[in-house]
Amino acid sequence: MRAVQITEFGGPEVVAVRDVPEPRPGAGQVLIDVARCGVNFADALLREDRYLASVTLPLIPGIEVVGRAADGRRLAAMISSGGYAEKAVAAEGGAFPVPDGVDDVAAVALLAQGLTAWWLINHTARVRPRESVVVHAAAGGVGSLAVQLARLRGARVIATASTPDKREFALSLGASAAVDPAADDLTEALYAANHGEPVDVVLEMTGGRVTDQSIAALAPFGRLAFYGMAGGVEPGLVSPRDLQRRSVTVSGFWLMNALARPEVLREAYAEMSGQVAAGELRVVHGGDHPMSDVRRVHADLRGRRTTGKLVLDPTR
């Protein structure tokens, strides 16, 4: 079968389409004929050997697929690797039925990105109605869904995005205000966007000064949920005494840990796919690309030239 394989770490040039053996499902697994596979920023980090988990080469990247099982079921599935391929093997517990009214791009977007956004809002940050929620990188895959899910929870959303077009896009998704994260004083900018008040929740995946100045913007009992470091710069040290002084919480989240709770993820996926089918949740299509264009897709992703959900078509 055709698949994308990485045999060395590096830039987009190290991803290549090759012929590889088909995977074989074991006990409790299902073989999926892949219609679309998702592309995530984590795939670029993995390719560069900067991912949270250790990686052994050669490797077929990709952690999310949608397609058909041999028995005809249409399934979307989270997998540990192997998604950039014509066929992929998934655990039955990590494969979710896809309802009518949810296209392939949306079905994939609700996996790593949708489940991350859902967990951050419902579990990690525990967003409540009428709270102010800052969503960094609001035009991205996780961010665009988090803006909408927070709003559906009754929160007031403040989005950040790097360009005027992306900030306008975040406003179109339901954000009440949009801020440039490169502002000289991001803390003050977030205060201003929240009518001069500190904020209740921050969903953060940039790192560096963005994390530090976001923590400074938290109100008493505020929560910052850290789920990535796209900027590549570690935040400064957080003082436990300062956290105590303001009764704020800084927590981390990695979706791989949530895979141990498939029943919760199944509930989350069913909830979000129902919202998509009902027109309540909008998945932003960021590009439906042939798998043969994977190097260009990775270059665009790493260069921050993408918006919404990117997918690969393994048949092309």
Could you characterize what this model shows?
This protein is of the alpha/beta class. The chain has two domains: 2-110 and 284-313, Medium-chain alcohol dehydrogenases, catalytic domain (Quinone Oxidoreductase, Chain A, domain 1), CATH 3.90.180.10; 114-256, Rossmann fold (3-Layer(aba) Sandwich), CATH 3.40.50.720. Helices cover 32% and strands 26% of the residues. The protein contains eleven helices and 15 strands. The protein has helices at residues 41-47, 104-109, 112-124, 141-152, 164-172, 186-193, 208-216, 240-246, 255-258, 262-277, 294-302, and strands spanning 2-6, 15-19, 29-39, 64-69, 74-78, 87-91, 95-97, 132-135, 156-160, 177-179, 199-204, 218-226, 249-252, 285-290, 309-313. The strands form three sheets. Strands 3, 4, 5, 6, 7, 14 and 15 form a seven-stranded mixed beta sheet that branches. Strands 10-9-8-11-12-13 form a six-stranded parallel beta sheet, sandwiched between helices. A hairpin with a 4-residue loop joins strand 4 and strand 5. Helix 3 crosses helix 4 (141-152) and helix 3 (112-124) crosses helix 10 (262-277). The longest helix has 16 residues, at 262-277.
Q: Give the CATH architecture of the largest domain.
A: 3-Layer(aba) Sandwich
What count of structural domains? Answer: 2
Biggest beta-sheet profile? 7 strands, mixed
Spans of at least 5 consecutive residues whose pLDDT stays below 50 are: none
Share of residues in strands: 25-35%
Return Rg in Å.
Answer: 19 Å
Q: What's the order of the H and E elements?
A: EEEHEEEEHHEHEHEHEHEHEHHEHE
Q: In CATH, what is the homologous superfamily of the largest domain? A: NAD(P)-binding Rossmann-like Domain
CATH class of the largest domain: Alpha Beta
In round numbers, the mean pLDDT is 93
Secondary structure tally: strands: 15
Termini separation (Å)?
A: 12 Å
How much helicity do the residues have? 25-40%
Based on helices, strands and strand pairing, what is the structural class?
A: alpha/beta
The number of helical elements comes to 11
* CATH topology-level name of the largest domain: Rossmann fold
**Per the principal axes of the C-alpha atoms, what is the gross shape?**
globular
